[in-house]
């Protein structure tokens, strides 16, 4: 779930992930913006009043938390006013794919830049503890656990979706479609019928979060060499981009089916189901390498599910706030049917947006950086975990996550 996540209007709204990181570096050079971005580490934040600090030495904030904003009375049903936002950990390259392991009672995280996967144990100390889970995950992104508790992971580097079996072996669920290799599987969810759904934009078809194409629109000048330091991925992973798709892997037959094409949702990123399984939500995020029209519209789309397939696609929200075009990312629903969405855009607007099932924004969470992905976890599934670039944040809620991570 991710990509070029900076939200903005016009051409700036089409930044790639690489452009976002470069943009942040440039913004941080200014005294004012640098002060705000540095707040993730130690300095005060310019978002709240009075300014707040983040991390182990954070100053207690007045409650309800000033950065958890109710925009409609219905938000009070899912918001727990006695809990503050917390920054739990920082130190990753780009955090993604949070998935709660019910059996192990830990949160699994992917670092798409370093290729590591991490395990966050909330019960180890007051801040919890992060440890290395897998040193090499081939630039893994999205994760989920299926009905049998098996881990399903999207790998940018190998351009495939895999499942870890209980005996430690690996099953490849999807690595090609109609004879062509995939782009860079991004986000993944388990459907109520047991099928696995994932999005396949081209955000990892570059040297930072995977490996470059050998040629074609994603590497038109052939300046990028996909074979450098990538013996395994270039041997087994794809080397040519295809159009964006959202795929379904059948639980019984293993058939890989494109249920949505680029004309339905371009730049597909986060996806999730409604609690009753009657709806599918898909975020249209940034432009991946080599993208051709139609391009992403930076909105969230919703589809009705009939016989396990999406129909009647329509706009759920244009994802604007205060007149600014924001960028949606990872998605999750709660048991009330509300949609919790990671949001990228200007400081003070970015964070998490919460919509009711009718598409009305009922609340939002301001964070000192945008949110790439999120999930509900904890023994009661009422803790919202938010991956925000290099850092992990949390918020105790009064609701529970719907379905599996």
Automatic annotation (TrEMBL):
Alphabetized UniProt keyword annotations:
Hydrolase
Instruction: Kindly provide the name given to this protein in its UniProt entry.
Output: SMP-30/gluconolactonase/LRE family protein
Instruction: Give start and end of each SMP-30/Gluconolactonase/LRE-like region domain.
Output: 96-387
InterPro entries in UniProt: 6-blade_b-propeller_TolB-like (IPR011042), SGL (IPR013658), SMP-30/CGR1_Lactonase (IPR051262)
UniProt key word Hydrolase: yes
**What SUPFAM superfamilies does the annotation carry?**
Calcium-dependent phosphotriesterase
